[in-house]
Every structure is written in C-alpha cells, then in structure tokens.
Amino acid sequence: MKKKIAIVGPESTGKSTLSAKLAAHYTTEWVHEYAREYLNSINRPYNYDDLKLIAKGQIEEEDRKLEDVTDLLICDTTMLTLKIWSEYAFKKCDPLILNNLESRKYNLHLLCNIDLPWVSDPQREHPDKRKFFFDWYEKELKKQKLNYIIIEGKVGERFESAVKAIDKLLLNKL
C-alpha cells in the first residue's frame, strides 16, 4: 500500500528542502508546492479565486505523482496550507479546498517548526507571524486527529528526525 507524507508548516521553515532530501533518500517522487509555480505565472497579486486554482493544480500534481511511485510519496504542502492561507487572507475558504482537506489522507504529517532563520523570498509574506501560523497548523492537525510529529533543529537534524519517523511508519510502527 502506498504511503503519503505531508510536509507542512509556516513560511521559510525548510519544507521544500526537506521534501527534496527525503525524496532523494527514499528514491521516490515528491510533489512540489504548486502555489510557487502558479504565483510566478501571474503578474498581479493573488486573490481568493486563485486559491481554488492553486488547489486544483496541487491535487492534479499529487495524483499524477502518486501513480508514478511504488510505495512512498512526499508532499510539500497539502490542502491544510491552502485552508490556513485562505482563512487568514480572505476570512473564508473555498469548499473545494475544505472537501479535499477532509478526503485526501496522509499517513504522516511532518510539521516544520520555526527554529530556522527567516529567508526572504518574493512569495513570502509574514516573517513576524511564524509562531502564530505554527500554532494554527498544530491546532488544525490536533483538531482533525491527524498523525503528526514536529520537525525541528538544523537542516541535518530535521532530516534525521523525518527519516526516523518515516522508517517507523514504513515498518508499521507509527
């Protein structure tokens, strides 16, 4: 049975770096954060309707990559990120995002802590709200009773913690 790992957390917490390293370690595919590609393709600020299009792109990419793997898929973001982003920015969330948040299952969520330094990026918006968003992610993971662990420390420590948790999952011990 294929297993899916979701990597979530606030901006600039090493999610993409961790995703790439884990995919290489397990010789598998990883789903890039589609929002980056989408936002780079529009020459304007994003709006509420863009989030639904981003969700559709993320879902399509995840489904396509899931077909290509034999046992493990690493997902750099999920509908959880889009829900939080939408509710924060627009005080509402499209039903497509909410329905897919409920129906799309992941075997393990790796919640990246905010203990890495902020790295500025044109798509990053809230360097002063990382604790606020981290707490929101954790609250949502608990509320939905999802299997998660917090990933923290330097890049190497994060990778080691993630591998340890994924190995336990693959051995059906988590």
Describe the 3D structure.
The protein has helices spanning 15-25, 34-41, 48-68, 79-90, 95-103, 130-143, 155-170; strands at 3-8, 29-31, 72-76, 108-112, 148-151. The longest helix has 21 residues, at 48-68. Helix 3 packs antiparallel against helix 4. The chain has a single domain (3-170), classed as P-loop containing nucleotide triphosphate hydrolases (Rossmann fold). It has a five-stranded parallel beta sheet, with helices on both faces. The chain has 174 residues and is of the alpha/beta class.
- In the CATH hierarchy, what is the architecture at level 2? 3-Layer(aba) Sandwich
Tell me the count of domains.
1
Along the chain, the helix and strand elements come as EHEHHEHHEHEH
Strand order of the largest sheet: 2-3-1-4-5
- Give the distance, in angstroms, between the N- and C-terminal Cα atoms: 15 Å
Low-confidence stretches: none
What is the average of the pLDDT values?
95
Main beta sheet: 5 strands, parallel
Strand content is: 5-15%
| Number of E-type strands | 5
As a whole number of angstroms, the C-alpha radius of gyration is: 15 Å
**Helix/strand class:** alpha/beta
CATH class: Alpha Beta
Q: What is the CATH homologous superfamily assignment?
A: P-loop containing nucleotide triphosphate hydrolases
How would you sum up the global shape? Answer: globular
Number of helices: 7
Helix proportion: 40-55%
What's the CATH topology name? Rossmann fold
